[in-house]
Write a structure and sequence with these properties.
Blueprint: E1 22-26, H1 31-41, E2 45-50, E3 63-64, E4 67-68, H2 69-74, E5 78-82, H3 88-99, E6 103-106, H4 112-115, H5 120-126, E7 131-136, H6 151-158, H7 160-163, H8 181-203, E8 211-215, H9 216-221, H10 227-234, E9 251-255, E10 261-265, H11 269-278, H12 293-298, H13 300-311, H14 316-325, E11 330-332, H15 336-341, H16 343-347, E12 351-356, E13 360-365, H17 376-379, H18 391-400
């Protein structure tokens, strides 16, 4: 792969594992850009191809001077170029990019890339070793292939929304988890598949490029633990459980005096004894009906009432401190203010202030990877750029790469 000229890319940390991997992103909204953000955080050189007006997600959420705050993270560590894929010039430049790249990620509806004349056959004609990761709602084949889908549909059809309902509240729709979880999951799986395919191609000089097919529904469905074999063997359909876990007790989320909630996991025998002592009910740990996890599950309503009676007398932070001192796993339900101010988040740089030339100083989440010798801050090499910020540099590189 030809090296990008120094003016086209800011210096990359050579200790990052994907340094030297070049990825073209034909992504919009969430799934494909999330996949490439992970790859870019790992050191890959990601060239994000946007329409002339920019990725539609640039118009989502809060903004500073017309620049979407989310895009500071969503587009970080990427080079941005703008192209009209409906034009002959735009298609030709994509082909030139593909010729000098290792992989491509896209999340158009199935068939759209082919209609642009940029399907896998077209791209492999330019670069036979190219790895192509395709993300869609339902996959590249099957009877639902051509149906439109967004993240909420992946949650609904993949089985997750059925589980997020609260028992006894059938009149209310099961809530979404608050983020675009199916897009993010599909992005993670696409990134994983891309790296695996690139490893295979790199290790075999005769290898051809691979096409990876990831869909939103299948990504959510993959998280359904043992539910499918349980249904196949016994006809069981797991039902919503609310905040509790049916197979472990006591594990639940309890109300506190200040209106906040405390999650407590006291289900092992040893921890259960410590929990009962901490809430002033040591005698309960010796009662036969609570003698092991199976018995506690049978009598969980009584246990939950006992614990809730204690948590309701204390603010969440105070109850948490008492249980932590007793080595009982627990946590308040954090909102973003809690995350941003927590000393552990700050010490591990999970939350870090970053200078963004478009919107000023902003808090960024760390990349979800830790590598020895590389600090989390080093992995955030630059923030999401303006649309087309790297047109001149990248297109000059393509001209210099001509045989």
């Amino acid at each position: 792969m030809p090296a990008m000229s120094e003016t086209a890319s800011r210096p990359q940390t050579p200790r990052l594992p994907l340094a030297g991997l070049r990825v073209v992103e034909l992504g919009h909204y969430i799934a494909a850009p999330f996949a490439t953000r992970l790859l870019a955080d790992l050191g890959a050189e990601v060239i994000k191809v946007e329409p002339p007006e920019g990725d539609p997600v640039r118009g989502w959420g809060s903004a500073v001077n017309g620049n979407a705050v989310w895009f500071s993270v969503h587009g970080r560590n990427k080079l941005s170029v703008t192209l009209d894929l409906k034009s002959a010039e735009g298609k030709e430049k994509v082909r030139k990019l593909v010729a000098v790249s290792d992989a491509l990620v896209e999340n158009f509806r199935p068939g759209q890339l082919e209609r642009y004349g940029l399907g896998p056959a077209d791209l492999h004609a330019v670069n036979p070793r190219l790895v192509i990761a395709r993300i869609s709602g339902y996959g590249q084949d099957g009877p639902y292939r051509d149906k439109p889908a967004f993240g909420a549909i992946g949650e609904a059809m993949g089985g997750l929304r059925h589980l997020t309902a609260n028992p006894g509240q059938a009149e209310l729709p099961p809530p979404r988890c608050g983020v675009s979880i199916s897009d993010d999951l599909a992005g993670m799986y696409a990134a994983m598949g891309l790296v695996a395919a690139c490893w295979q191609v790199k290790g075999d000089p005769a290898a051809k490029g691979r096409v990876i097919d990831v869909d939103l529904v299948g990504s959510v469905f993959s998280l359904m633990e043992g539910m499918l074999p349980e249904y196949g063997l016994f006809g069981w359909v797991r039902q919503p459980q609310g905040a509790a876990i049916q197979t472990a007790a006591p594990t639940n989320t309890y109300p506190c005096a200040d209106g906040k909630w405390l999650c407590i996991a006291g289900n092992s025998d040893l921890i259960f004894r410590r929990l009962m002592a901490a809430i002033g009910r040591p005698e309960a740990a010796a009662e036969p009906r609570f003698g092991n996890n199976a018995l506690r599950c049978e009598n969980v309503a009584e246990l939950d009432a006992m614990i809730a009676a204690w948590t309701r007398t204390l603010p969440a932070a105070e109850a948490e401190a008492i249980l932590e001192a007793a080595e009982v796993p627990c946590s308040r339900l954090y909102d973003m203010a809690d995350c941003a101010g927590d000393p552990h988040f700050r010490a591990r740089e999970m939350v870090m202030p970053v200078a963004d030339p478009l919107i000023g100083e902003v808090l960024h989440p760390a990349a979800p990877f830790r590598f020895d010798g590389v600090s989390p801050r080093e992995m955030v090499r630059w923030t999401g750029p303006a649309a087309g910020a790297h047109n001149e540099q990248v297109f000059r590189m393509l001209e210099e790469a001509k045989p």
